[in-house]
Amino acid sequence: MAIRPDWTTGTLTLISGSVNFTTMGSALQTAAVQADDEIIIASGHVLIIEKITGQNSGTLYSKCPAGAAGAGQALRIRYQPDGSRYQGGGA
Description:
35% strand
């Protein structure tokens, strides 16, 4: 797979201590966001996606830390190359 630019369409809401996240206007399924892709927060946190549950929702592998929580944040998702998905599968 060719390297794809980060997905930055829409906004992100994260709640401290929760694995669930929601977005607004991001079309995650249409954008082919998958497990193991990374959400990069302006605070410097990197959160790994466990699964996409809808066009504007998903879950994280770990609970959201307080420093990454917030509503209406800029969305930045870094796609992972297919090879890294296979290596990390089941981790």
